Amino acid sequence: MVLDQEDLQPAARRGLHIAFRPIYDVAAGRVFAYEAMLRGPEGEDGDEVFAQLPRVHHAELDRRVALASIYLAMTAGLDEDNARLLIPIHAAAAAVPGASLAAASDAGRRAGLPTERMIFAVHGYGDIPGQQLADLVEGNRRAGSLTAFVGLGHDPVGFNPCVRYRPEMVRLDRELVAGIDNSWSRRLMLEELTPKLRDHGMRVIADGVESDSALRRLRGYGIFYVQGDLVAPPLAGMLPPSRITRPTANA
Questions:
Q1: What percent helix, strand, coil does the chain show, rounded to 5?
Q2: Which one of 38, 93, 156, 161 is most buried, by most CB atoms within 10 A?
Q3: Residues 101, 7, 21, 79, CA torsion sign
């Protein structure tokens, strides 16, 4: 299949690119999904890139990121291990509801990635109007896709939209996860928070996992989807294999 040049470029601004990193399922002992990540010319993350752009361009950049993520992931071999693709949505509040889903669905049909293997990761979900957030989650669900709310941390306000709108997944802020080996308060919060999310039918992703001891603690809390340097750092245009092996997952 010949790819359109614009589909391979997430934005007109030079230097923007897509990197990938795995989300590892330690219970199943395999990569559950690969996260597509927008990166700026100096390595800026997606939130920083969007903050530097006028709001009027945010929805279009989200659309281009969705297109590029799908085409690049499939070219890099996503179809070989049947993992899902996590597609970031940074501008849900500025876009027409369902815009990223529509763009991704069309790209998926052309590239061979069904919507059932897509996860839409909503950044800044706490700033999105309630009805728009509800429509986004329900629209993804009807298409067979999953929704993940990204960035649940110390602030309890972020928990309320999770309970009310029920995404299939919630990703904990890396600042909450990193350093749990040496922070009693962080361990206590995870111990209290994780069962509440599971009781409402949400799976938890822990970002910022950097050590085997942290991984063991997270498993003790019932958190089995993990990301971080222990799993694999992001690579531009490539699907990095997980550094965690099956024996570690079963230890």
A1: 45, 20, 35
A2: 38
A3: positive
